[in-house]
Design goal:
Number of domains: 1
Strand content: 35-45%
Helix content: 25-40%
Structural class: alpha+beta
Radius of gyration: 17 Å
Strand order of the largest sheet: 1-2-3
Number of strands: 3
Number of helices: 2
Distance between the termini: 58 Å
Shape: elongated
Largest sheet: 3 strands, antiparallel
Length: about 80
């Protein structure tokens, strides 16, 4: 009888304004049969520090976050704060 715990990023999504959403699945397995599964969701905004973020998520961010996307996101945030 062998019980193992594995974690994997099983979903990555980029929204139209450049926010990257990702989901990490944690699975508890016993002899190849899944006993339980839990999810943890996170989000990253364009230009955010990527220290400690999984490599496959960083790779998507590096492609999605062009200078134009980061500038547009920052302008959107500034406009929302000015209107508040």
């Amino acid at each position: 009888m062998s019980i193992t715990k594995t974690t994997a990023i099983d979903q990555i999504t980029v929204t139209e304004n450049g926010i990257v959403l990702y989901r990490e699945a944690t699975r508890i397995m016993e002899d190849g049969n899944e006993l339980s599964k839990a999810y943890h969701r996170s989000s990253l905004t364009p230009g955010q520090d990527l220290t400690g973020i999984p490599a496959n998520v960083v790779a998507i961010c590096n492609v999605a976050w062009t200078a134009e996307v980061i500038a547009a996101y920052q302008a959107q945030v500034a406009a929302q704060q000015a209107g508040a």
